Task: inverse folding
């Protein structure tokens, strides 16, 4: 299978991810703020899932991980 992105490639979300599949991540689990994950946010490819989607690590403005979302290849744009 030919893939467009490789692990750790920086990407931009072109669509809003399904809120049902957003996995929020925080070092302090009790004070997690559910920031809305929406199109235009930056991320980094984590892994390629068995169903052909990408597991994307969504980053905040400081470059810290705030969530993980599954995204289709056509819903991502390379920023490198």
Result:
């Amino acid at each position: 299978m030919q893939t467009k992105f490789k692990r750790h490639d920086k990407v931009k979300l072109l669509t809003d991810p399904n809120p049902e599949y957003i996995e929020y991540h925080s070092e302090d689990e009790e004070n997690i703020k559910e920031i809305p994950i929406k199109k235009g946010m930056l991320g980094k490819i984590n892994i390629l899932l068995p169903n052909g989607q990408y597991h994307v690590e969504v980053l905040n403005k400081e470059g810290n991980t705030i969530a993980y979302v599954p995204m289709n290849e056509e819903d991502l744009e390379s920023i490198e």
In short: The domain at 10-78 is CATH 2.30.30 (SH3 type barrels.). Strands lie at 10-13, 23-24, 42-48, 54-59, 65-71, 76-78.
